[in-house]
Amino acid sequence: xxxxxxxxxxxxxxxxxxxxxxxxxxxxxxxxxxxxxxxxxxxxxxxxxxxxxxxxxxxxxxxxxxxxxxxxxxxxxxxxxxxxxxxxxxxxxxxxxxxxxxxxxxxxxxxxxxxxxxxxxxxxxxxxxxxxxxxxxxxxxxxxxxxxxxxxxxxxxxxxxxxxxxxxxxxxxxxxxxxxxxxxxxxxxxxxxxxxxxxxxxxxxxxxxxxxxxxxxxxxxxxxxxxxxxxxxxxxxxxxxxxxxxxxxxxxxxxxxxxxxxxxxxxxxxxxxxxxxxxxxxxxxxxxxxxxxxxxxxxxxxxxxxxxxxxxxxxxxxxxxxxxxxxxxxxxxxxxxxxxxxxxxxxxxxxxxxxxxxxxxxxxxxxxxxxxxxxxxxxxxxxxxxxxxxxxxxxxxxxxxxxxxxxxxxxxxxxxxxxxxxxxxxxxxxxxxxxxxxxxxxxxxxxxxxxxxxxxxxxxxxxxxxxxxxxxxxxxxxxxxxxxxxxxxxxxxxxxxxxxxxxxxxxxxxxxxxxxxxx
Length: 519
Prior knowledge:
Blueprint: H1 4-20, H2 22-31, H3 44-55, E1 57-60, H4 102-119, E2 131-143, E3 146-157, E4 168-176, E5 183-189, H5 202-219, H6 223-229, H7 254-260, E6 264-268, H8 284-289, H9 302-317, E7 323-333, H10 335-346, E8 352-356, H11 374-379, E9 394-397, H12 411-416, E10 422-427, H13 440-450, H14 453-456, E11 483-487, H15 498-509
């Protein structure tokens, strides 16, 4: 904690510096170019209305309610779930030709990507600035009673072309302290904090407290009397020991399981890349690319921006000597499960993905009428997607109206873009909080429809495939191929599936695992 004297010094120094150079700076300003306009400031509603105006949309259909007692509740009747029958086939080209070879798949893959770029997730600009990485903090910690090196790493996105917006990608990279060789790493979307910060010793904490008391008394002499009345009080107390919270299945936390299995992990903060709201679209990396101006209809949304950020993290990890850059995986749950699947689909450098409870916009078929609807995304979470995606929720527009049947691609094709790499689709159960809203059946059907792409490219799809291909009971593992499915008996999390993911991925990476996945 800085003293009052040092704080005053920091305030006064820039002021005196400005005063001493006032005249030359004024001269320089007369000849300097005028700064660019500041970023546009919109509310969520204003940004959405701006995009609707660009698209010629006058009204959007409201999304269904997740409350089953509400008059406009979502459909949960399987008999009414499939009114649309034109879900596209990942192995049929747009001209109707069947894809029968890897060479034709390359052509089909380009068609699918174009469909997602134009109409669902948006296009990543081709002129994005470079990211410069620097290590801010290094801490030696213990995770699951094992020694690790934890590093806070910041990726500064070059903003020289538009200094009004700063984007600094933040992650915490944790690797075993003394590995025999570079380790695989799982990038995990979510809060980025040191897992177990190294605490000062008792003697060091006593010194800190003496200094704090001295500084506080210097700032407010009346505190001396209070400290004398409470001589045992210390401003900073040792953090009490707390045993780690177990996962929903009673297993150790995911970080413990990863480190125990010889993996590292990177906690990636999505908000440091792009805000999770519409008002933030003129800031973050999307705003930086647009120089603070609102999006155009084909511009990328937050999901694609988060995926881009994960790719930049992979750029860093590929050059970190402690990391096996050929075996970097991506993970996320819910909206971050969507982002993990998008990351895996668009960046072929990722070796594996654990996609947790991703729902619509992730692994669930967009054309299924069950639970969350396309209208839920075009209305509430429109900023996750391209502006063009709003067309499919339009009830009144210059082009008429559109619905999910008009979307040129679907989630089975998004999953197929991951082939033949390791892709694990994970869900929990509604009884524990993984809501029916997510449409687990819709994700299962999309995974089944994507499966034939794996053998076409030399891999193994869903195995063993049920006959008929009905969704397996919970805790039934389909882990014998490079495409995997498992619905655990927990809630809105992928934690109970982590050990299955690790054992499955280790086997296919030629690694020895501490986890038995034969169940």
